[in-house]
Amino acid sequence: xxxxxxxxxxxxxxxxxxxxxxxxxxxxxxxxxxxxxxxxxxxxxxxxxxxxxxxxxxxxxxxxxxxxxxxxxxxxxxxxxxxxxxxxxxxxxxxxxxxxxxxxxxxxxxxxxxxxxxxxxxxxxxxxxxxxxxxxxxxxxxxxxxxxxxxxxxxxxxxxxxxxxxxxxxxxxxxxxxxxxxxxxxxxxxxxxxxxx
Amino acid sequence: xxxxxxxxxxxxxxxxxxxxxxxxxxxxxxxxxxxxxxxxxxxxxxxxxxxxxxxxxxxxxxxxxxxxxxxxxxxxxxxxxxxxxxxxxxxxxxxxxxxxxxxxxxxxxxxxxxxxxxxxxxxxxxxxxxxxxxxxxxxxxxxxxxxxxxxxxxxxxxxxxxxxxxxxxxxxxxxxxxxxxxxxxxxxxxxxxxxxx
DNA sequence: GATCACATACCGACTGGTTAGTCTGCCGAG
DNA sequence: CTCGGCAGACTAACCAGTCGGTATGTGATC
Lengths: 197, 197
Known about the structure:
Chain A is mainly α. Chain A contains 9 helices and no strands.
C-alpha cells in the first residue's frame, strides 16, 4: 500500500485540484457541486475541507497556478537575448501554445472569474495586470525602436491579441485541421503583420 | 392610469427581459434567482411563467435578440456597394460599436452560453456559424481578389477578430480614454493591417 | 344593456429537491 | 497516547417551477 495515496497515485490536494479543474471547465463553477468534486477525486467532503477553506478557494487556486505559469514563461521570453520583434513573436506564440495545452484552465479563467468574491477577484486582476503590462512594454519597446507601427496604442494591441487567445477555448479542437503550433504561428503572425510600420 | 403598464412604462415581457439581461450580466445566470428578476421587473413569478416557459427560455431570448441584430447589420454592410476592403472594414468596426453598445448582452453571450441545454445551445451555434461564415466569405473574397494576404486561413482571421470583440466586455469601460468609435476604428485597422499583402 | 361564458394577465404561498459547509468521531503512525 | 488526515451524516438555506385563485376584459345571446 502506498504512502498517502489510495484511489490514485497523487496526493489528495492535487487530486482535488485536478478534479475541480476538469469539472469547472466542463460544467462551470456553479453547476459543479462539492460532492461531485470529492467523488471524482475519490475522497469525501471531510478531506476537501481539511485542505481548502471553501469551494471558492479551490477556484482561486486554479487561477493562481495558471497565472504563475504564464507569467514565468512570458518573463523568460521577454528577457531573452534577441531583437524585440523576435521576442514578441515568441512570447505571443508561446501563450497560444500553453493556453491550448491548458484549455480547461483557460475556459475556467474567462468564464468563471466573476464568481470570485471581490477581494479575490481584485487579487487576480492585479496579477493579470502585471502580465498585461509586461507584454505591453514589449510592444512599446518595438514602437520606440521604430520596428512596430505606432498607429495603434500598445494597450489596445495587447487586448486585441489576448482577445484571440481567450477565444481559443471557444473554437479550438485538438482534432481540428490545425495543430497547436500552427495556430500559434498564425496568430503570432497576424499580430506581427498588424504591427508592421 | 395607463393601459397595461403599472410599475413602469413598458409591457411586462420586455421589462422582464431587460431586468434579466442586466442581472445575468451583473451576477451571472446561475447566481440570479427568478425571484430577483421578477422583483427587478416589478412583477411576480406568476407573470414570468405566464410569458416564458422557463428561466432558460429567458436566457435564450437574450441570445436570439442580439444574434438577429448583429446578423442584420453584417448583411447590410457585406451587401453594400463598395470595394471589399471597405466593406470588411465597415463591418469589422460596426460589430465593435454594436457590441460596446450592448455590453451586457455580450458578456452574457460569452460567459453563459454553456448554461443552455444541448438543443438550445445547438440552435445558437447554428446561428453563430452563419454569422461567422458571412464574415469569412468577405475575407475570402478579398483574398481571391488579391487585396488581402493569403498567409493566414480566413477562418482563423475571423476567430482572431471575434476574439477581440468578445474580449471587449472584459476591459472596455465607457469612462475610459477611448470612445466607442475610436476603439472600433483601431480594431478594424488592426484587422486590415494584418491582412495587407 | 344585462347576463353569462370564457380567456388573458397576473398573484403569491407552497413543494420537492439540491447545496455548501459543519461536526463528531474513527484510525493508523510516530 | 495523540494528532494529522479523513469519513460521512447532518443542517440550514435556497431555489425553480407549480398551482389554485383573483381581477379585468370581450364577445355572444336574449
